Amino acid sequence: MLLYPYGVTWTPATPLVSRSIPNLAAFPAGGGRRSLKFVLFSVPSRCFPCASASPDRCNAGKVEGSTIDRAAYENERLRLDAAAREAMAATASASEGSEDPRSWKWRIRKRIWDLMEAEDIARNPRPVHHRIPNFVGAPKAAELLGRLEVFQKAQCVKVNPDSPQKQVRFLTLTDGKTLLTPQPRLRTGFFSVLESRMIPPESIMEACSSFGFAKYGKPIGLDEKIKVDLLVIGSVAVDPHTGARLGKGEGFAELEYGMLRHMGAIDDSTLVVTSVHDKQLVDDIPVEKLLIHDVPVDIICTPTQVIYTNTTIPKPQGIYWDKLSPEKLSQIRILRELKKLIEKETGQILPSGPSEKLPPTAQRRKLI
């Protein structure tokens, strides 16, 4: 996808979304200020080229004005993501035919991933297995989400970093809201805060990517005083009748929710929204088998409809330390910091969950 000033045309592209950006200003040659309007185009490519008119900036190994080496950052991200998917595939395979209480989740996930590939409703990155799957119509689902009253009234929106929610992140920034995005798999820290005033107008779409979070985002810690008005999370499958949801199986959405709950940034009244393809709607997630830390959804947006689930599934109240394995705790620095803080404040040692085999995704080398 490319972000162009309104009025600039590019024949092979199809306009998806026309968007006014009232809080960003351009300076015409004649002086004065005018609001910018952008059109979001679809491009038949896996990558997102730079919106800058300068080809040198697009092709440079190091991003202008940044100390982050883009090529190295992307290579490292892809390496860690591949390792994570391989480990998740091994976990799913090992659970087949076993008494693993999570095996039913993997069966539903695999069915949805297989279906999306077989019916070609999946979109890059592919294959969608062991990912929050990108899908045909994701921008349309995002537009319906953007029309929700709760979104329009929200000042701060937390959005997951996955591909199908990229347009939601774009709408959040162009509507002048604060965007809160977790570091992918909580590898490098906790959350990044982005606001449109922090980002050059031509770089808004770049800021919605994983690399853009690192380049333009302001990292925050557990002591940040912040109020989140709406949570947007990705899903592999979701039940429209109960609000029961399955992610890709790593549990990061639950950890992020628990930490925000501990910070006081959210509470039971904070609505949780997901955007999925209609084929990701299921009716066979057994509510009675959900775990205490599983996060239900209040609203589902697909390319064709908005569904209010009226869920009665209790929302997690924080981090459930007795469910958190020593391996996951050792790989996520922000969790270790939170555990030490709580133990220091209470004078009590927190419990630990059972051991598990984890992919080596939480550690990232510093790239400069």
UniProtKB/TrEMBL annotation:
Region of interest called Disordered, as start-end residue ranges on this chain: 349-368
A cellular component annotation (GO) from this entry: cytoplasm
Pfam families: 5-FTHF_cyc-lig (PF01812)
Alphabetical list of PANTHER family matching this protein: 5-FORMYLTETRAHYDROFOLATE CYCLO-LIGASE-RELATED (PTHR13017), METHENYLTETRAHYDROFOLATE SYNTHASE DOMAIN-CONTAINING PROTEIN (PTHR13017:SF0)
Name of the molecule in the record: 5-formyltetrahydrofolate cyclo-ligase
The species this protein was found in: Dendrobium nobile
Lineage: Eukaryota, Viridiplantae, Streptophyta, Embryophyta, Tracheophyta
